[in-house]
Amino acid sequence: MSHIAVERNRRRQMNEHLKGDQASIIGGVIEFIKELHQVLQSLESKKRRKSLSPSPGPSPRPLQLTSQPDTPFGLENFKELGACCNSSVADVEAKISGSNVILRIISRRIPGQIVKIINVLEKLSFEVLHLNISSMEETVLYSFVVKIGLECQLSVEELALEVQQSFRSDAVYANEI
């Protein structure tokens, strides 16, 4: 009888040890996948930056518009509105999702730029709900989820252009130096 109890105890300890090892392995795999995802985003943004034409100013272009371009953000009955505004300094993409806007910005790393972007958003009656920053070398990807304020009367193209304008002062300043 004691041999059976000892064997049960040994099996229980081995199972607990294996479960702990499996959990740590799975945790490591999850972290590795997250790192790979960030590297992929950074490489994609770097590829996009290299493929941009070096135009002097931003060039807004519509993306999957399902309504008139001057439709205010406050109207939520439309499926999805979106716009891109690209320049040699930054790519800005804005999409409406329900009562929120998903804003993605790819640019070179500029100290203090995130503060400028947030100031622009707040000035335009948006509230930042979520912000994710991914970077690799000199390229950075800012991903925002912002809540549309009641006072906001901008089209999605105007939002993308306003955010794009926050980069212009740095570009002009850098060229002057």
How many helical stretches?
A: 3
Radius of gyration equals 24 Å
Helix content: 40-55%
Which sheet architecture does the biggest sheet show?
6 strands, antiparallel
The assigned structural class equals alpha+beta
Distance between the termini: 86 Å
Listing every helix as H and every strand as E from the N terminus to the C terminus, the arrangement reads HEEEEHEEH
At the fourth level of CATH, the homologous superfamily of the largest domain is: ACT domain
The quaternary organization reads as single chain
Q: Which term fits the overall shape? A: elongated
Count of distinct structural domains: 2
Mean pLDDT: 76
| Poorly predicted sequence stretches spanning 5 or more consecutive residues | 55-79, 170-177
Number of strands: 6
CATH class of the largest domain, named Alpha Beta
Provide the CATH topology of the largest domain: Alpha-Beta Plaits
Share of β-strand residues = 25-35%
CATH architecture of the largest domain: 2-Layer Sandwich
How would you characterize the overall build of this protein?
With 177 residues, the chain is α+β, with helices and mostly antiparallel strands. It folds into two domains: 1-51; 82-166, Alpha-Beta Plaits (2-Layer Sandwich), CATH 3.30.70. Helix content is 46%, strand content 27%. The protein is built from three helices and six strands; from the N terminus they run H-E-E-E-E-H-E-E-H. It has a six-stranded antiparallel sheet with strand order 1-2-3-4-6-5. Helix 2 packs antiparallel against helix 3. 24% of the residues are buried. InterPro entries: FAMA/SPEECHLESS/MUTE-like, HLH_DNA-bd_sf. GO terms for molecular function: DNA binding; DNA-binding transcription factor activity; protein dimerization activity. It comes from Vitis vinifera (Grape). Residues 44-68 are annotated as: Disordered.
